[in-house]
């Protein structure tokens, strides 16, 4: 089923927006040039920082791309809960020779200013995380020719996105690396944010709304992309798989940790930001996660200097090592090569007579697409 969205790239492969530096213009440009859809992450940036990244990307490529925005957050936690957590982290600040950040930092992520820039100087796709935009916001972007996507983690959130007039939903399974895009973080209702697995969620969302679905969470191989397309998605959004690419702006220690046997598992945690996010289970996450209150972005601001100091000290044990459940399958391939390998694996998985092969993990720069799978045509025609 071709949609305005799927016509933006040759392959049904979206490089996930990854705030914190990973999805930089270099990565988005390389993915776009290889026939995927690249994304910039505006989260944690100022509106001007976002504008500069868009300009840099436009200087590198004429290919379509997306920009992801964080929805402004209501203050959820009581100050007292944040104070208790701050006291708990005092020893961590001493350990890394830094001070804790001010938890009363901004909660709106410069949202309105970013929207104003995106209306003035439109981009092909804008996606929203941590909530659904208003119908007026969606309409204002539609009028300037932008395709809008809302990240959802439940069928009810998908209904809200449809009501707001979004063009598509990004369905994020619990396997996903980084923050769960849950619209309202409610520990009473969701516990630690433990969500629904991707294949189940795709089916639930497809029965709830008519919108095209982009599937995200744990996807590392072309055969998995074939699986979510068979389940009704029009495209797959991959974060952790692209995190390991040389073009990704992720910290080198973060890239290495993805396939380091020291990190055997991932966990959903509020330890670093106050909102459930999936990361490699390192010391900080294990020691503090169970005590972290639902206080995003207060904890993000509070732990920011700690995480930076740990990175500077070369200690991944107190960095936020966001990763999806498939992290051990990460391949350190240049982004264009990764898109080509994924597309070839996808084509092989969709052709029943062709043996399905995967390029090896974790790092084999010489890995090439399986023989006899030269690459698919435009993905609208393949579905
Ligand atoms: C390091 C990192 C940062 C992320 N930052 C964002 C973000 O800024 N906005 C967003 O919508 N999703 C973000 N995500 C989630 C991705 O959009 C996507 O849902 C997820 O990466 C899919 O799971 P996977 O990592 O297993 O492929 C991030 C994921 C990672 C790994």
Automatic annotation (TrEMBL):
Biased composition (Gly residues): 374-383
Transmembrane segments: none
Keyword Flavoprotein: yes
Compositional bias of kind Low complexity: 351-373
Catalytic reaction list: 3 propionate 3-nitronate + 3 O2 + H2O = 3 3-oxopropanoate + 2 nitrate + nitrite + H2O2 + 3 H(+)
Keywords in alphabetical order: Detoxification, Flavoprotein, FMN, Monooxygenase, Oxidoreductase
Molecular function per GO: monooxygenase activity
Family indicated by similarity: Belongs to the nitronate monooxygenase family. NMO class I subfamily.
Name recorded for this polypeptide: Propionate 3-nitronate monooxygenase
Source organism of the structure: Streptomyces olivaceiscleroticus
């Amino acid at each position: 089923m071709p949609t305005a969205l799927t016509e933006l790239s040759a392959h049904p492969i979206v490089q996930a927006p990854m705030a914190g530096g990973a999805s930089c213009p270099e990565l988005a440009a390389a993915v776009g040039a290889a026939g995927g859809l690249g994304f910039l992450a505006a989260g944690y940036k100022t509106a001007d920082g976002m504008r500069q990244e868009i300009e840099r990307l436009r200087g590198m490529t004429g290919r379509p791309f997306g920009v992801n925005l964080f929805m402004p957050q209501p203050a959820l936690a009581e100050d007292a809960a944040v104070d208790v957590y701050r006291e708990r982290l005092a020893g961590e600040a001493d350990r890394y020779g830094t001070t804790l950040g001010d938890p009363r930092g901004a909660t709106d992520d410069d949202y309105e200013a970013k929207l104003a820039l995106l209306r003035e100087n439109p981009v092909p796709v804008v996606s929203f995380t941590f909530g659904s935009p208003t119908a007026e916001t969606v309409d204002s972007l539609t009028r300037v020719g932008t395709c809008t996507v809302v990240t959802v983690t439940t069928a009810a959130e998908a209904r809200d996105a449809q009501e707001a007039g979004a063009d598509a939903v990004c369905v994020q399974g619990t396997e996903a690396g980084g923050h769960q895009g849950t619209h309202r973080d409610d520990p009473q209702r969701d516990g630690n944010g433990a969500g629904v697995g991707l294949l189940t969620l795709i089916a639930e969302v497809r029965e709830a709304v008519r919108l095209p679905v982009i599937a995200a969470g744990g996807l590392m191989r072309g055969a998995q992309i074939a699986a979510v397309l068979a389940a009704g998605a029009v495209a797959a959004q991959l974060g952790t798989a692209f995190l390991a690419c040389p073009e990704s702006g992720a910290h080198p220690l973060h890239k290495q940790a993805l396939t380091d046997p020291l990190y055997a598992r991932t966990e959903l945690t509020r330890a670093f930001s106050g909102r459930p996010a999936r990361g490699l289970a390192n010391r900080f996450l294990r020691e503090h996660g169970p005590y972290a209150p639902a206080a995003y972005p207060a904890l993000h601001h509070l732990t920011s200097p700690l995480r930076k100091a740990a990175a500077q000290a070369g200690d991944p044990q107190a960095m936020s090592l966001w990763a999806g459940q498939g992290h051990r399958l990460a391949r350190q391939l240049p982004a264009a090569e990764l898109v080509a390998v994924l597309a070839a694996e996808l084509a092989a998985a969709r052709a029943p007579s062709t043996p399905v092969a995967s390029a090896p993990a974790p790092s084999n720069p010489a890995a090439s697409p399986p023989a006899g799978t030269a690459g698919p045509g435009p993905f609208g025609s393949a579905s």
